[in-house]
Amino acid sequence: MNDKQKHYQLINAQVAALIDSEPDRIANMANISAVLYNQLAQVNWAGFYLFKEEQLVLGPFQGQPACIRIPMGKGVCGTSAETQSTLLVDDVHQFDGHIACDAASNSEIVIPIISASGKLYGVLDIDSPVHNRFDQDDKAGLEALVAQFVSTFDESISE
């Protein structure tokens, strides 16, 4: 196990301690955003977009003000949500249809949030001012974090 994988184990343990007994998704997203923003190096934005009214709407985040609404299939977030797959983008300026919410962002990783029943809930979005910032260790660590978050969902509650 490398240092980055160990770091994600610590981050995920910290997140578990914060969210495991808390059913409120918004509160959990706020704390997850804060942990990621403060614990990941070379990150200038960390947060969530929620799937509402057939588009993504800004949720809890840390960083500069962001785009409020993103159409499905547009930009990295909308593409990740539409395809329901994690996207690692080494240079966002080369991504067809990139939406520049913060001109300082150069790379990005977006993980879709899909409930146990298969419902798209939104995406976790993390931006960096550094090109090629995110790799397969980030992907694995963040997908595990999202899975942990989804495990707290009570799907009988609509938020």
From TrEMBL:
GO-annotated molecular function: L-methionine-(R)-S-oxide reductase activity
PANTHER family the UniProt entry points to: FREE METHIONINE-R-SULFOXIDE REDUCTASE, GAF/PUTATIVE CYTOSKELETAL PROTEIN
Gene3D superfamilies named in the record: 3.30.450.40
Domain GAF: 39-149
Stretches of the chain forming a coiled coil according to its record: none
Name recorded for this polypeptide: GAF domain-containing protein
Species in which this protein is naturally found: Brumicola blandensis
GO terms under cellular component: cytosol
Phylogenetic lineage: Bacteria, Pseudomonadati, Pseudomonadota, Gammaproteobacteria, Alteromonadales
InterPro entries linked to this entry: FRMsr_CS, GAF, GAF-like_dom_sf, Phosphatase_reg/MetRdx
Family the entry assigns: Belongs to the free Met sulfoxide reductase family.
Stretches that traverse the bilayer: none
